[in-house]
Amino acid sequence: MPVIAVVNHKGGSGKSTLATHLAAWLARQGLMVMLGDMDRQQSARTWLKQRDPSLPAILPWTADHRGVLRPPTGVTHVVLDTPAGMHGLELAKVVMSADAVIMPVCSSFFDRDSAASCITELMTLPRVASRKCRLGVVGMRIDARTHSAQTLRQWALSMQVLFLGVLRQTQVYVRGLENGQTVFDLTGSAAQVDLEQWEPILQWLRPIAQLTPAGEQTRPESRRENFSPDHHSMDRIPAARANSLMPAQEALAHGDLLSKFAKEHSGRGVIPPPTAGADSVNPFRSKPDYHSDALI
Predict the structure, then answer these.
(1) Which residue of 15, 237, 270, 283 has the lowest C-beta tally within 10 Å?
(2) pLDDT grade for 213, boundaries at 50, 70 and 90
(3) What order do you get walking across the sheet with 162-168 strand by strand?
(4) Bigger pLDDT: 284 or 206?
């Protein structure tokens, strides 16, 4: 089951925007997709509630009779919308479960500085360092009238991380997300420019999501030595990874200590039930919002 995690230490970087669009794109391919909202703000879950039933379905977490969160039956692909400030063991558990990490980064110095710290931490994790979990950067809210795109491209090269492309700042995203839509759900020419900007990102993701053979992919510049597009293959590498997504989700049980998790007969781990009195599906509903990760 391919797992794509959207990660950045900084709130308001566009993680929920990126995650909802990735989930919608996968759903448009006829896949059973789950959008796992790990953030206290629950922006992605709120967006899902606005989504028209006539659009390709995207599933949220489900909870069993014990209040245990798990992917719904039949899910084949997962997109994780992670919270701001996630680091240490919580970040490591997400990476253990992920096939790819995509980091949205805005062009300001503060955004780049925060993202650099996150990339540095990610690079210390074995699955990222060995390229068994792919890492790519996407420029967010880029104004075409400025040099922001080139600034981000040069910054990514200096960080030796793959730069996938940029998404422009436009009301198309704002209006669409307010209605539970994405640029992939719009008809006509309204989102043509945006769809073209998405193509290099999706081109990188197709083999990771097992949608096309890796050999058919034309790769963007490499993040490693010599920055040659052919330097490292985008082939999906069978690798040691977590048995499930669930260990990465222990952050959902606010205040709980990290612990070992039970496994079901299928080998899939689950997270413990939320603490007493909490919403079994959304344990953050009664909790204060410590992070501000804007949808746009």
Answers:
(1) 237
(2) low
(3) 58-59, 33-37, 77-81, 3-6, 100-105, 134-142, 162-168
(4) 206
Give pLDDT tens digits for 239-281.
Answer: 444 444 444 444 443 333 233 323 332 333 333 443 444 443 3
The amino acid present at 261, given as its one-letter code, is: F
Which long-range contacts link 278-285 to residues 24+ away (Cβ below 8 Å)? 278/254, 280/63, 280/67, 281/60, 281/61, 281/62, 281/63, 281/67, 281/69, 282/42, 282/45, 283/252, 283/253, 283/254, 284/40, 284/41, 284/42, 284/252, 284/254, 285/42
Task: Write the CATH number of the domain with boundaries 3-252.
Answer: 3.40.50.300
Question: CA-CA distance, 203 to 142, in Å (whole number)?
Answer: 20
Going from N- to C-terminal start, the domains of the chain cover: 3-252
pTM: 0.74
